[in-house]
Amino acid sequence: MSASSPTRYAYLGPEGTFAEQALITIPAAEQGVRIPARSVPEALDAVRDGSVDAALVPLENSIGGQVGVTLDELASGHELVIVREVVIPVQFVLAAGPGLTLGEIDSVVAHPQASAQCRRWLRAHLPGAAVIDVLSNGAAAAAVAAGESPAAICAPIGAARHGLPVLAKEIADHPDAVTRFALVTRPGPPPEPTGDDLTTLAVYISHDEVGALLAVLTELAVRGVNLTRIESRPTGERLGRYAFFLDCTGHVAEARVGEALMGLRRICADVRFLGSYPRAAQPGESPVPQPARTTDADFAAATAWLEKLRTGR
Amino acid sequence: MSASSPTRYAYLGPEGTFAEQALITIPAAEQGVRIPARSVPEALDAVRDGSVDAALVPLENSIGGQVGVTLDELASGHELVIVREVVIPVQFVLAAGPGLTLGEIDSVVAHPQASAQCRRWLRAHLPGAAVIDVLSNGAAAAAVAAGESPAAICAPIGAARHGLPVLAKEIADHPDAVTRFALVTRPGPPPEPTGDDLTTLAVYISHDEVGALLAVLTELAVRGVNLTRIESRPTGERLGRYAFFLDCTGHVAEARVGEALMGLRRICADVRFLGSYPRAAQPGESPVPQPARTTDADFAAATAWLEKLRTGR
Amino acid sequence: MSASSPTRYAYLGPEGTFAEQALITIPAAEQGVRIPARSVPEALDAVRDGSVDAALVPLENSIGGQVGVTLDELASGHELVIVREVVIPVQFVLAAGPGLTLGEIDSVVAHPQASAQCRRWLRAHLPGAAVIDVLSNGAAAAAVAAGESPAAICAPIGAARHGLPVLAKEIADHPDAVTRFALVTRPGPPPEPTGDDLTTLAVYISHDEVGALLAVLTELAVRGVNLTRIESRPTGERLGRYAFFLDCTGHVAEARVGEALMGLRRICADVRFLGSYPRAAQPGESPVPQPARTTDADFAAATAWLEKLRTGR
Amino acid sequence: MSASSPTRYAYLGPEGTFAEQALITIPAAEQGVRIPARSVPEALDAVRDGSVDAALVPLENSIGGQVGVTLDELASGHELVIVREVVIPVQFVLAAGPGLTLGEIDSVVAHPQASAQCRRWLRAHLPGAAVIDVLSNGAAAAAVAAGESPAAICAPIGAARHGLPVLAKEIADHPDAVTRFALVTRPGPPPEPTGDDLTTLAVYISHDEVGALLAVLTELAVRGVNLTRIESRPTGERLGRYAFFLDCTGHVAEARVGEALMGLRRICADVRFLGSYPRAAQPGESPVPQPARTTDADFAAATAWLEKLRTGR
C-alpha cells in the first residue's frame, strides 16, 4: 500500500456477505474495484500475484473465534502484511420470500454458524421451522431469491442485494457480536504509527523446550508490550506442534516493539511479521495505555547512556 | 463413568464419519449402543440429560486445528469431563458410483475441510473435476450412494457403510494427519493415574490485568507442569475476551498438578476442570518426562518438613 | 521460648554497647539475667548448650549493613530460630574525661564503624583531633574511663555505665540510623501470627543452574510472599558460592508462606528456616499489605475445590 | 587508564597486607609507584583527585564475604570504574619474634577476621595462647617486629617485610580461601572484551514496587546475561532500603549486555556502571558458557531483520 492507495480489492465472497459490508467502510475501497473471491486462499493469492492491490479477509469473530484458514494462509506462502483492521457488527436478519409473514415460515436456510448464533430467536419465534444448512450467508439469501426456500438468515447486505423483505432485524443472540477483518497487501513500509496500533506476528517455537511459550510472553512483557490476543494453529506436522498468532499493542516503528521483536527473533524457531496497523477501537474503548518507562524517549535516553559507558564518555 | 463402564454412546454423526471410526476403537463402545448425534451440542446434551452414558466428540485436527464448538460446549452448561482421548489417522479416500473409473469423474462432493486437505491430489489426478461443497464427510458418501454425485471424498468407513467402490486411498496432502477425539461423561472420580496423563482446563482471566496469561503459565511452570496445548476461544462478550483451554501434563491426583490447579483457581477469574485422562501417545512418542523435584514423593517430603517447622518438631 | 519465657539472656557484649541497650527494651529481659558474650558465636553457643534461654545478636545496621558473623552462625551448627526482632536507634555521643571541654580534646577513640558514621561531625567540631581505632564501642568508653584517652565516640549506655560526661549527643551523620537485633532461641513452636510478621530463611542454590536465584524469587512471588531483604554470604567453598538470607513477609503458619517454603525446599539445594516473628515496625511504617487472593481463606477455598475434583464430588 | 597504563597506584594499606601482595601481581604496578592508603575511602579519593592513577581495594573474601566499605564508596561520590580484578589466596602464617619456638608462644596478635579464619589451627597448636585483637594484618606483623607481642597471624608478605621468622604456614581453616580485589580508575573506555568478562553494576530499585528485584533479574535473564554475584548494601535512608551490587557475565561492549543494561536503566530508580573487565578465572575454572542465541552475531541478525520490517525492505 506504498505510494498510492490500492484501487483493486479482493474480498471473501460471495457478494452480499459481511466481508463486502466491511470493505465498503473503507473510503478508497468504496470508490475502487471490488472483486469477490471464492475463498480466503483465492483472495490472498490475488494479492500475491498482483491481480489486486489488497484483500479483505476475516480474522476472527467474537462468537465463532479464529478464522483458521486466514491465519494459515497468512503464515505460509509469500509474505503478506496487514495494513488495516475493520471491525463490523454481525447483525443477522430474517429475509423471506415476497409477501410471506412470519407465521407462514416453515423452514429457514442458514450457514451453520449463523443459525447457531440465532438459536434463541429461532426457538422463540419459529419453534416449528426446520433449519437447513447452506455453505455461506450469501448462499442463504440467494436460495430465497431463487425460490428454493421461504426464508433465510443472512446479513442485511444480502437481503438488500436480492431485494428481499426483512421480517426481523438483529435476531442474533449476542446483539454485540462483531467480526474483525484484515486488509492485506504485499509487504511495504507499514502505515505511520498513530499511538494506538497493533502488531500481528506468527511465532514458531521449538517444542523440545519446556516453557517456550512462557519465554515468548516474557520477551513481550519485559519491553512493556501487551498481548491482546493469542491463537494457536497446528503446523500440520503432528498434533502438539503449533504456530502462535499474537496481536501485540504498539507499532514496529516503536523502540519497545522493535526490541521485543528482535528478542522473539532470537529465541524462536521462526517469527513472521504480519503487520503493524491502527487499532480499530470498538465503541466505548479507549487506547491501550502504554506501560511506564517504555516510550521511545525512555529507550533513547537509555541508548545515549549506554553509548557513554561504552566510549568512556 | 462411575461404577460400571458406559454402555450407551453418542458420537458426532452422521454415521460413516471419522467419529464413528474413532468410537469403535474403544472396546466397550464397540460392544455397546452407538447413537449418532446431529451436532456436538446434541451429543453433549445427551450426556447431560442422562440419555447416554458418554459421548465422543472431536477436539482438534492436526491440519484444521481446534474444533471450536466442542470447546465452547465443554466450557458452558452443566459440567462434563473428559475421561479418555482417542487419536485416529484421517485418511481420505475417493469413493465413486458403481462401475466408474477415475477418468469418468467430472465432479466430486466433499466437505470443504476435506477437499482443502486433498488439494494437491485433486490437482494432480482430477484437474478438471468440479468440487461441490457439502456439509459433512458422511453427507458426501451418502450423496454418491443416492446417485446425486459421481464421486466423494470421504472417510474409509463412509465408503464401506454405503458399499461404494474406492478409487483411491490415502489421498490427503498430509499423510500423517490425525484427529483427536474426547470421550466425555458426567463428572465423577477421574480415571486412575497412569504416569502419562493429561489434564484439560478452561481458564478465564481478568483482562484488566497486564500479564495475566504470563501469570497463568508461571503457575504451571513453577510446579513443573508442562503445557502441551493452548487454545483460545472468544467468550462472546466482545472482541479481546477469551477463555483459554489448556492441556497440561499430569493428573489431578498428582501433587504438582493439584497445587498448580489451586494456584490457577486463586488467580483466575474462573477455572473449569475438564478432566484428567491417559495420554494417547502417537506412534513414536514417549511419555512426557516429568521435571526433577516434582514427584509426589518430593511434595510429601516438603509437606513433612513444613509440618515440623510449624509445630517446632 | 517454648512454655515459659526465657529468664537467662546472652547478648553481644561488652556491657555498655547497643546490644545491651536493645535487650533491656524487652520486658522479660529487663527483669531476667543478662550475660554479655565476647562474640556472636559465644552468645549463640550459649543458647545451643542450654546455658542461656535466648541470645540477642545484631543482624544488620542501616548504615553498615549485614552483620556477617551472625548470619554465618545462624546458618551453621545446630538449628536456632529467631523469635523476635528489636530495632533501636544508633545515636552516638561524644563522652569525655571529667572536666574536659570540647576545645581541649585532641584525640578520640572509636570503633572504626562509629567514627565512619560520625565523619561529618568530627570534621566540623574536632577537625584537628586524631581518631584512634578501638575494637568496640564499649572499649572506647572504657578507654576514657581508664584515662587512656581524653574522649570516645560511644553509645549513650556506654557513657552512662562509666559515669562519663557527654560533651555532644546525636553526633552521627545519619540521625535516623538504626540497628536491628534478633532474639534467638532453640527451635520450638514459633510465636503466634500477628498479621504483620516476617519469616527469615537461609537458602542454598545449586550454582550449576542458570537462573537459580530467579527461580527462588519466583517461588515467593507466585504465592504473594514479598521479599523485604536479601543478603548473600559466601559458603566458604570458593568465590561465587553463596547462601542467601531472605526476609519474607508473612508467617510460616500462613498457607501462602507454607506453600512458598515447600516450593523452595523442593527446588533449592538446601533451605534452613530461621524463624517467623512479629515485624518491629519502624516509626511511620504501616503493615506490609498482603497481595490479593493469598489469604488463608483463599487457599482453603482452593483446597476444597481441588478435593471435589479429585473425588468427583 | 586511558592512553598509557597507570604508573601511580594506591592500595589498601598498611604495607605488608594482602592488598600489597595482590597489587604486585600486576606487572605495571610491580614496576610503578605503590602508595599505601589508610582506608578504602582514602585510596579511592586518591584516584578521584588524580593523585594516583589507580587503586587496588578488596571487594570480597571467600570466607568473610563482602567488603561493605568498598561497595559503599564505589556507589557514592564521583564515578569510578573497575578495570581489572585480582584474586589471590589468603594463606595465613604464624610469624614470631626472633629465636622463639612454637612452645614458647603464650599470646598471638591478629586481626579478628584472621584469627577467626585460623580458629581450628589455634585450638590444635596453641590451645593455651591468648589471642589479642588488632586492627589489620599489617599491624599484627608490625607489633611483633616492635617487640610488643611474641607472635602474629599475618600475610606472608607481612612476615617478609619485617624479616620475621615463620613458625607455621597455611594455617587457615579453609586452605582455599581467596580474596578478590578490584583495580579502580577514573571512567574511561573499558578494557577490550576478551570473551570471558564480568560487568559490575550498582542498581537501586523502587521499594514501593512488589517484585522489583525479580524484574531486575528477569531483565538479565531475558538477554542471556548470567548473574555470578549479588550483594545488598543499605542505602542509609532506613532499614529495608538497599542498593544491589551485581556481577554479570559479559562485557558492556557486547550486544546482550548492552541491551540488558538499557533495560535496567529504564526500570530501575538508578543504575551505576562499575566497569567491564576480564574475569580472573580461579584454578580449574573454565569460562562461563554464553547461552545460545545471545552472541553479537545473533543480535546483529535480529537488528538487520527488524530494519527490513520497518522499511518494508
Automatic annotation (TrEMBL), chains A, B, C, D:
It comes from the Bacteria. It catalyses: prephenate + H(+) = 3-phenylpyruvate + CO2 + H2O. It holds the Pfam family ACT. The keyword Amino-acid biosynthesis applies. Pathway: Amino-acid biosynthesis; L-phenylalanine biosynthesis; phenylpyruvate from prephenate: step 1/1. SUPFAM superfamilies: ACT-like (SSF55021), Periplasmic binding protein-like II (SSF53850). Keywords: Amino-acid biosynthesis, Aromatic amino acid biosynthesis, Lyase, Phenylalanine biosynthesis. Its EC number is 4.2.1.51. Residues 8-186 form the Prephenate dehydratase domain. NCBIfam families: PRK11898.1 (NF008865). This is Prephenate dehydratase. It comes from Virgisporangium aliadipatigenens. The lineage of its organism: Bacteria, Bacillati, Actinomycetota, Actinomycetes, Micromonosporales. The gene is pheA.
